[in-house]
Amino acid sequence: MSETAVEEAPVPASGPVDGFVEPVPMEEDDPGQFPGDTGTLDAPVRRVLVRLLQRRFLVAERNRAQWRTLLENQQVIESRLHDLYVRLVVDHDRGIAYKRQVRSAELDVPILLKDDPYSRAETLVLVHLRTVFQRERGAGETSARVDVEEVEQTVLTFFDPDDKSLATRQTEIRNAVRRLEKDGVVEEESEGRYRVTPLVEIVLSNERLVELRSWLRDRTAASGEEAAR
């Protein structure tokens, strides 16, 4: 009996065989962004997430690339923050994003974000900046600007008139302006001249502004009555 020769199909030199994907050598695996990296986010998304955790605010006007990355990946960034019991707030109208600690009476929530309250001088400067911003916007202006001397003179009227440490108060006020500049509430356009940013509306809500104005009026009235006696 003669043997029948069976013609074998040629096997490609490279590429998938019989529908199977050719394995990738271990040395070609994605090593991650650092040794042992098991994260799944791309580097730009990670940077936005870290910035949100590090800083109080992300402002679109000052960080356009990161703002775009945030909007494109908002859902996954929110999910990562929720894992830490932190909420993400994105104000599209103002172009500002910030975080808030989740607090609940029903849940035992570990607190990650520490409160960093403004000092008395910083709060008083905020009241003035918020008032100027509100006034200018009400007049139809697109922006509000203040001089540091104007801020200083106005805020000094909120302090006790019998306080003799004028130089100390002036230093506190100027330090307060610098702190608020760091937070992005004001931006220095020229020496001593600042633009008030929309961030002031978030840092000091209208409800809180009304409360502080009322407190200042009562305090001023009480000081006047005391001086009249």
Keywords:
disordered N terminus, Arc Repressor Mutant, subunit A, alpha+beta, three-stranded antiparallel beta sheet
> Main β-sheet: number of strands, strand sense, barrel status?
3 strands, antiparallel
The gross shape turns out to be elongated
CATH superfamily of the largest domain: Winged helix-like DNA-binding domain superfamily/Winged helix DNA-binding domain
Number of strands: 6
- Reading off the top of the CATH hierarchy, the class of the largest domain is best stated as Mainly Alpha
- Specify the number of helices: 8
What strand order characterises the main sheet?
1-3-2
Average pLDDT number: 84
Classification by helices and strands: alpha+beta
Fraction of residues in H or I helices: 40-55%
* CATH arch. level architecture of the largest domain: Orthogonal Bundle
| Number of structural domains | 2
Q: What is CATH's topology name of the largest domain?
A: Arc Repressor Mutant, subunit A
Terminal Cα span: 134 Å
